[in-house]
Amino acid sequence: MKIYPVIMCGGSGTRLWPVSTSRTPKQFVNLVSDTSLFSQTVTRLAPGSDGLDLAEPIIISNARYLDLIETQLDAAGISPLAILLEPCARNTAAVAALAAEFVGRIDPDGLVLLLPSDHFIGDPAAFRTAITEAIAVADAGRIVAFGIAPDRPETGFGYIKAGEQIGQSAYIVAAFREKPNHITALSYLSEGNYSWNAGIFLFPADLMQAELMTHAPDVLSGAKIALDLTVANGPVHQIDETSFSGIRSISIDYAVMEHTKNAAVVGPVSCAWSDVGTWPAVGDLQTSSGPVQPVLIDTENCTIHSEQGTLIAALGVEDLVIAVHDDTVLVMSKSRAQDVSLVIEALKVRGLTDKF
Amino acid sequence: MKIYPVIMCGGSGTRLWPVSTSRTPKQFVNLVSDTSLFSQTVTRLAPGSDGLDLAEPIIISNARYLDLIETQLDAAGISPLAILLEPCARNTAAVAALAAEFVGRIDPDGLVLLLPSDHFIGDPAAFRTAITEAIAVADAGRIVAFGIAPDRPETGFGYIKAGEQIGQSAYIVAAFREKPNHITALSYLSEGNYSWNAGIFLFPADLMQAELMTHAPDVLSGAKIALDLTVANGPVHQIDETSFSGIRSISIDYAVMEHTKNAAVVGPVSCAWSDVGTWPAVGDLQTSSGPVQPVLIDTENCTIHSEQGTLIAALGVEDLVIAVHDDTVLVMSKSRAQDVSLVIEALKVRGLTDKF
Description:
Oligomer: homodimer
Strand content of chain A: 25-35%
Order of helices and strands of chain A: EHEHEHEEHEEEHEHHEEHHEEHEEEEEH
Structural class of chain A: alpha/beta
Number of domains of chain A: 2
CATH architecture of the largest domain in chain A: Alpha-Beta Complex
Number of helices of chain A: 11
Shape of chain A: globular
CATH superfamily of the largest domain in chain A: Spore Coat Polysaccharide Biosynthesis Protein SpsA, Chain A
CATH topology of the largest domain in chain A: Spore Coat Polysaccharide Biosynthesis Protein SpsA, Chain A
Radius of gyration of chain A: 21 Å
């Protein structure tokens, strides 16, 4: 059987503004190295010497990012199997339904590897080993989640509780847990059988179709109709707007994973994973601050991002984020990294919509 | 008798980097309003309804700033009497000698008003009133310094101690004092007869020539020869390089003012004066942070400078300087405002000479 990577790259957030904007969101920006997270994601899944042989990727994104996708795939030397363009965002259950339907129509026995494109994985080999183990589990009739080994009591992620062991690193899922408070997160860490839910799933296309039919039939039927009405031009598929926009917006976790009896987890995977969710997280991964090294004098614990031709100098400061993009400069206390949206709100009030 | 303003605008420092650079130093930049300090200086001396009637200004600067000078004079609607271009910097005694010689050759009875172009004066009327009083004192055979009313125990300026009163706000100078330490500065403030030395002087051209002949004859003769060999093209005079560069580099304070028996001081003048010496000083005077108002969220006591098209956002920070110029960004603790030269040193080491 074949495994079809389906890469989600339609989202855009505010926490990495001004570098990540709605025109060029985080996954398409060279944030932590000289390639984008999207480019790293597709490259990570290419055929390698470890025997893992995945199909060419299926890209699901928003129509407005087609140019970025084509340019970056081309630069990475990757030919996509298909590019599915959503007319609007409808959360991950709709994406999983599209993915299961699209793959099921090509290959009824196919497996789908559904994954975000805006995460960083520092140890791709470890991640690919986890995929190999997950393939066996999924092929036996499971929806497999990838559990990331937690290294801190993070309150920003969901957790997966592992139950009965069914493989070397594979377990029946005992429970999915929403983002915990700090005390609860500490207890998960000490209990030891919890991992972070990275939002990466591997499943047989027909199993996901069946689970959606049981737990979210409206989402499945909406996705079917939207695909039926899709207009294809080579690998690029424009998903029908009227039918797709009517689909209920719900995450795959809420719609299926928390209800199915067929959930498994592979992990905890130690692959140096990061969701690159905030500027300090970018700083933790940076090997370079940009094309021009900043001048740092008596400066401690700062995350600095610049772009071609821009020089940043910092003198006598600490615990700051300094990020420059085009003609926009953000200077922020690291402790406020979750609050960048306040800046976006202020820009909206001023009507500066070209700035975010 | 006529009074000839001689405006010194050849200097360049590092403390207002990256906005002030050797190519476009502080006096030519729109730092605290939408005109430059140089432009404000020449405009402040133009004929007004208060009866103060000064000659057209004589500009003394470095040859590399001729374009800036001509452009900004033109925009201010000011025709210069002359523009004297120094081939290199030789401190203020050489400038005073040039000024006295140049004016003495035009008008042996002329008075010279020698003043820097990179200071801010918030109350020009008060300053012009002080000039009027100083004219009477200078005309009676004095070199008149302008004493600024001190409002804090500043350790960055020299002080003038007032002696015997010789006019409404005019005194014989009892002593010039170099930059004091904090304790000494406090004592000057409490004694009450000290004012800041703003580096502004009014004197008869022939008196300065005589004083230089007594106290620094080498500087005077060097300036005479340099002027003799100067090449004029309309109002622009290129001062001879070989002779001028051989002049001893010494300040007018050391060369003449601390020795002459004919020093007077007018003041203390309360004209909202600032030497605009550091970024926090710029912040104290700013009416605007630049053409695009910054987005400031939970941000306290920051000095922010941006330029056309640049947006600065600050979130959760305090006591910072954030200054953007072209493709260069400085983020600095206000407490380190005297140490910008450390950044320049680092840029020199890297060979980034186009950045300062």
